[in-house]
Each structure stands twice: as structure tokens, then as C-alpha cells.
Amino acid sequence: MNRKQLFLLLAALVIIGGACLVLLQRHQQSWTVAQDQIGHKLLKDFQLNDVAAIHIKGDTDLVLARKDDGWHVQERGNYPANLSQIKDLLIKMADLKVAQTDPIAASQLKRMQLEQPGKGAGSAVLLEFKNAQGQTMQSILLGKKHTRQSMRPSPMPYGEEGFPDGRYLMLAGDPKTVLTVSDPLNSAEPQCAEWLDKDFFKVEKPRMISFVSTNATNSWTLTRASESASWTLEQPKAGEVLDTNKVSSLASTLSYPSFVDVAADAAPDKTGLDKPLTVTIETFDHFTYTLKIGQKTPENDYHITVAVAGDIPAARTPEKDEKPADKAKLDKEFQDKTKPLQEKLNKEKALGKWTYLVNSWLVDPVIRDRAQLMVEKKTEKTDESAAPEAKPASAPEEPDDTPDVMPDVEPPLPD
After folding, report:
1. Most exposed residue of 50, 114, 233, 355, measured as fewest CB within 10 angstroms of its CB?
2. Can you say whether residue 272 is alpha, beta or left, with left for phi > 0 and alpha for psi between -120 and 50 degrees?
3. Which residues of 202-223 are buried (b: 16+ CB within 10 A; e: fewer)?
4. 127 shares its domain with 213
5. Does residue 54 sit in the same domain as residue 180?
6. How many helices (H) and strands (E) does the chain have?
7. Would 201 be classed as within a structural domain?
8. What are the residues whose beta carbons fall under 8 Å from the beta carbon of 307, sequence distance 6 or more?
9. How far apart are the first and last CA of the chain?
10. Over the stretch 307-332, which tens digit does the pLDDT of each residue have?
11. Is 74 left (phi over 0), alpha (psi -120 to 50) or beta?
């Protein structure tokens, strides 16, 4: 090897060594930055009070939007959203800290369920927070849940995968690093029904329940004179006897009703509400509830609309010769009683904008046919073949000389 070749070899070694040094420094810097994230907040400078919309995208889309009157679920006709659930998510995201960081290659994204949403089993859930101007404040890809095995047997259906105690995710600005947080973020899913405010109407002190069927012979009306009185059937027909056991639960059926979801497609011809069954309930507090009941879905839920009206007096009629002191006291008692009723009425009247999916176990008891409320008639057997068979005549029995009571004598012992 001559001097020129040696010089070229040394120069090549210097260049290669320099390049390796630069790559090593970059790797160390990247590793240092990743290590510095551990224990720190996931979202730096996250102003949760500035969030005006939450976008969650998986196989479906969900948008929770904040308006002047509160949060709403956009995909459910802007139905009110569960405020406490939204607050919980925002506070959690503001406090969430990084537990672990790891580099990730594009080939590993599917295994970690961090591919872009809508690409099958390996897809992530996109979670975005936007401000009032529609600008994205933070964008996160939520991937596979981190699990741990429990040494104790558990009745929970987690199976061999273990108990979820964290989640893998990626920030939009760093697609080459997977972060692990110590919360599975179970609520961050695009399931519209899970984000609805499920506070429904509540029937209190009912005095009349009426069912109008599409078949008039099946309709009925029940009334009672007081809250403690028994229900009676209006205009009973000949032979009809109301079964008090069957109607005793009617008053409590709608005391705490709930719904499964708000119907996304509420066209009357598709929900059966163009030819509905109707249930009307009047209460001793002067509320009137009108329920229109349509078709049942394959999931065993009914399409229902709710119309609420009320006749709550705005002022009390004073009695004759009422003293000023008594008037002030009675007026205050009247306002204390009617104010909650007026607030309840205003809240429940707003429910009339939407169509609901209500489980059949709640609806079926109040749409029973008229005959199903009556005492079942006992059918008498008139068929001769049903009569008991006569026993064949038998020969007279010979008299039995055996005494009715055996003598109390022990047999003799053998010799």
C-alpha cells in the first residue's frame, strides 16, 4: 500500500467515524428527551377550560360540542351530554403523566393498535380537543391497553389478557415514540349512547293511566281517588274484574324510567310512530305525560316520544279574612312547593324534541291489552269425557274378624 492509498483510507475512516459520532449524539439526545418525559404531564400547558369540542374517532365518529346551554352530543341531534363524564375526562387528561416511553417503527403500529383510525383491528382511537375557533389544541392516538396479571382469582371477565391498568398512545407531533400512561382511558370511545345525559322524566303521584291501542277493544283507563287508594277500571264491561295484583306495579313502573339511546333516524314511517300506541298519565301535581310508542327494534327496544305538560298555578288564592302574617307564611310555603314543580316541568318539556329507544321491560307493562289486566276466568269442564270414570262394581267383601286393635301381648320366648 503506497502513501496515497493510506491517506485515502485514513480520510475515509475519519469521515465514517464522524458520521457515527453524529448519529450517536442524535440518538443520545433523542433518548434523553424521551427519558425526560417520564413522570411529566402528557399534555403540557393543556388549558381544559378552553376546550369547546371533543372529537373521538374510531370505527365511528363522535363530537361533543359545548354551547351556551351546555355540552351536547352532535350525532344525537345535539342531545345534552353527560357533563360529569366530560369533566372527568378533561381533568384526567390535564393531570395524566407519562409512565414509560419507547421508540416505535412503522411495522409495529398495528401490533400496538396505533394505526390511523378506520383500518381494522390494529387501528387507534383518535382523541382531539378543539377550542372555540375550531383549532386543534391536542391530538392523541390511543392504542392498545396495557394490562397486568392478578395473582388472585377475579370474577371480572378479563380472561388471560389481565386487568387493564394503562394505555399505549402517541402524540400527533411525535409519531416515532410510543408513550405509556397509567390509565386505560376507558371512556374515550366513540359510543354515542355512553355520552348522553340519561336523566329522564319521572312520573310522581299518578292519578290516571290511559292506554289507547290501535285496536280499540284493547284500550283501557285506570284511575284512583288518592295516592293510597286502589286503582279502578273506568267503564268496565260485563264480566270484567280488574286484577289488582297486575295493576299494582303500574304506578311504580314509570317512577324512575330510563332510556338506552336517542334514535339517530327518527322518521315516523321508519320508527312506527306514524301509527303509535299512546299512553297518557295524569298526576295529582297536575302533570300530564303523553307517550307515543312505535315499533320494537331487533335489540328489544321501543321507539318512544315524550310530551310533558303541566298546569301549575303561579300564585295562591288567599282565603277570606286572611291575616297579613299568615298570608306571608302561606305564600312562602306555596312558592317553596311550586318552584321545584315548575323547574321539573321546564326540564321535562325539553325532552319532547327527540325520539328515544326504551327497553321493553319498561314499556310492556303499560301497553298490556285490556284482557291482560283482568282476573282470569276459570273454565268449567262440561265435556262428559272429562267426568271421572265410575269404579266397576266388585263382589262384597267377607267380614274381617281381625280386631281393630292388636292386643298388647308379647309372643312367648322360645325354650
Report:
1. 50
2. left
3. ebeebbbbbbbeeeeebebebe
4. no
5. yes
6. 7, 17
7. no
8. 289, 290, 291, 292, 352
9. 136
10. 999 998 888 878 877 787 778 888 88
11. alpha
Other CB atoms within a 10 A radius of the CB of residue 196 amount to 22
Run of H or E including 93: helix 83-95
Average pLDDT per consecutive 10 residues, the chain (415 residues; last block may be shorter): 64 65 49 62 92 96 95 96 97 94 93 90 94 96 86 54 86 92 94 96 95 94 93 92 86 86 90 96 96 95 97 82 80 88 95 96 93 81 50 50 44 43
**Residue at 398 is within a domain:** no
Domain annotation covers residue 123: yes
CB 258 within 8 A of CB 200: yes
* Contact yes or no for 254/203 (Cβ under 8 A): yes
Residues 43 and 181 in one domain: yes
Residue 413 lies in a domain: no
Pair (181, 259) in one structural domain? no
Q: Give the model's pLDDT for residue 154.
A: 53
The answer to whether 60 and 113 have CB atoms below 8 angstroms apart is no
Distance between CA atoms of residues 394 and 391, nearest Å: 9
288 CB-contact burial (10 Å; exposed 0-12 / middle 13-18 / buried 19+): middle
* Nearest C-alpha neighbor of 210 from the set 277, 287, 275: 277
CA separation for the pair 334, 317 (Å, rounded): 10
Q: How far apart are CA 344 and CA 350, in angstroms?
A: 10
C-alpha cell, 302: 321501543
Burial (CB count within 10 angstroms: exposed 0-12, middle 13-18, buried 19+), residue 333: exposed
Q: What is the pLDDT of residue 102?
A: 93
Dihedral angle at the C-alpha atoms of 94, 100, 104, 109, nearest 10 degrees? -60
Give the type of residue at 415: D
Rounded to whole angstroms, the Cα distance separating 284 from 226 reads 8
Q: Name the domain count of the chain.
A: 2
Q: How many angstroms from the chain centroid is the CA of residue 254? A: 17
Q: Closest by alpha carbon to 191, among 85, 350, 300? A: 85
pLDDT for 318 equals 80
Between CA 373 and CA 213 the distance in angstroms is: 14
> What domain range is 138 assigned to?
27-150+161-188
Q: What is the pTM of this model?
A: 0.77
Question: Residue 306 in contact with residue 355, Cβ under 8 Å?
Answer: no
224 plus 285 within the same structural domain: yes
